[in-house]
Design brief:
Shape: elongated
Strand content: 15-25%
Radius of gyration: 20 Å
Structural class: alpha/beta
Helix content: 40-55%
Number of helices: 10
Number of domains: 2
CATH topology of the largest domain: Rossmann fold
Strand order of the largest sheet: 5-4-3-6
Order of helices and strands: EHEHEHEHHEHHEHHEHEEEEE
CATH class of the largest domain: Alpha Beta
């Protein structure tokens, strides 16, 4: 946590602004906070392989990092267009021992079906999810891991807010406002949930503000149809928030 004195000067405010930054982890984001416990639990259960998907590659790096620490194999399906355009993330995953496939791939039934109809398909996250989940569903020693959205992921990420509470206490501050960006939810929940708990318990009373993208305002201007979370229908049916008018 860092106090941003320059920001205070730039926007001419008497408020003291503190910034909680998780990007100095080896994988470059907050996501090892959930990757480490998920992979550790899998290792304790005797799981040998972890599979996952990724778009740009940022998310999957966390799984390869965690698997390298606990001795599990990691296999990743990366959206083909990103696989081709962003080689350094692929290299980072491979450095930590992962096997990385461009998706759609010829490795799975889901991937082969796409390639039969569109051999030059650029891929999508939905296709990559189908491929990873298919492998997990057909191999007893393999589990699929996801780094956002799900309840256990939000729980793991609350270490961010718990640490921030201690840090604010250490500098003698009580925040008037907690602000976080929200998409899948793990970043915002990680920071805000411990403060929300303290607010509900009457210990502090900050304003809690989530900031979401105007292009996909899933919290404020959306309806929630149910659908599969992937292209191939391999995942459970979930609520999928979509902007009104979609």
């Amino acid at each position: 946590m860092t106090e941003l004195g320059d920001w205070r000067t730039l926007i001419d405010t008497p408020a003291r602004i503190y910034y909680k930054y998780e990007g100095t982890s080896p994988a470059g984001s907050h996501k090892p906070n959930t990757a480490l416990p998920q992979v550790w639990y899998n290792a304790q259960q005797g799981v040998k392989n972890v599979v996952t998907e990724t778009g740009a590659g940022h998310g999957a790096v966390l799984w390869t990092f965690a698997c390298s620490l606990f001795g599990l194999n990691c296999e990743v399906w990366q959206v083909r267009v990103s696989y081709d355009q962003k080689p350094y993330r692929k290299l980072m995953m491979q450095t930590w021992g992962a096997k990385v496939h461009p998706s759609p791939s010829g490795v799975t039934d889901a991937g082969r079906k796409i390639l039969e109809t569109d051999p030059s398909s650029p891929g999508s996250l939905g296709i990559a999810i189908s491929e990873a989940v298919e492998v997990a569903a057909t191999h007893a020693d393999t589990k699929y891991c996801l780094g956002s959205v799900l309840n256990h992921v939000l729980l793991h990420q609350t270490i961010i807010g718990e640490e921030c509470l201690k840090q604010m206490e250490a500098v003698g501050e009580t925040p008037d406002m907690i602000i976080g960006c929200t998409g899948g939810g793990s970043n915002f929940a990680g920071l805000a949930f411990p403060f929300i708990r303290e607010k509900l318990n009457g210990k502090i009373n900050p304003i809690i503000r989530a900031v979401e993208p105007a292009a996909c305002p899933s919290l404020t201007k959306a309806f929630t149809p149910t659908d599969y979370g992937d292209d191939g229908g391999m995942t459970p049916i979930v609520e999928d928030a979509l902007p009104l008018g979609t």
